[in-house]
Amino acid sequence: MPFEISNENFRNDTMYHQFGSDYTNLFGCGFLNKKDKKCKEENSIFKHYGIVLVLNGNGKHIDEDGNETTVYPGCLIQRIPDKKQSLHINPDGSWLEFFICIGKGMYESLVSMDLLDGKQTVLVPGLNRAIFEHCTEFHQLMKFSHPAEINMLVPEALKIILMFHRLHKENSSNSKDREIVHKASMLLAKPSSYKVPIANIAEDLNIGYEKFRKIFKDIMGVSPHSYVIQKRMDIAKTYLIDKNKSIKEIALELGFADAYAFSKQFRKCVGLSPSEFRKEC
């Protein structure tokens, strides 16, 4: 089955613990579903070290030197201490991230031992069900641990951070495949591409369809078809919340044959009909 994140995971659920009085010794983790004004972080400077794994949605990261990098599910943003950076998220409500933050001193020790890449701000460890379960399991551990036992979870947090760095190094050898999948994901997310056969997208990228399907699922965690459906549903939710378009208009704009076909797919993915979803907004 393709890996998809259920709607119940699109929430804000964070926790922090500070060791001593120094803010650089912050320890925390959580899930963030950023919307509206939270979609743009300009010139942020962090005193601690953090990782942000993109679980859903797309955006643009800008480092201290002004270098821009498109970020998408499977990308990991490093919040390097005292380094200015910006993040612009597509404001469609689909952004979901998992983060872990640790103390600045601990980060500096790991860099000095060459265990972390302290220069590259965006890594690509990838995303699959096993990675997502690592995140949720650690989140639950931290959420339900007694405050006196929080410090015992630091080694587990470091294991996850180091795992992401290891996966990034392993995936770097597949950079050509990643570039193809990244270009494809950008094309498939555009409403203008919803009526274009996925095989045509693969052909435009000079890759065979079967190989394209395989590398897309390996890197993105879902098949190209499931990815397109997910993006269509994300846009549909935005349209339904705005209430400026009829359900029939939304269906046609998103490439469905009629309102019935759209409603059937929406209920399958969201658990509610478009009308029910709109009433609850």
Automatic annotation (TrEMBL):
Q: Per its UniProt record, what SMART domains does this chain match? A: HTH_ARAC
Which organism's genome codes for this protein?
Anaerosporobacter mobilis DSM 15930
Q: Which Pfam families match?
A: HTH_18
Which keywords are on file for this protein? DNA-binding, Transcription, Transcription regulation
Q: Which SUPFAM superfamilies match?
A: Homeodomain-like, Regulatory protein AraC
Which intervals hold domain HTH araC/xylS-type? 182-280
Question: Which protein, by its recorded name, is this?
Answer: AraC-type DNA-binding protein
One of the record's GO molecular function terms: DNA-binding transcription factor activity
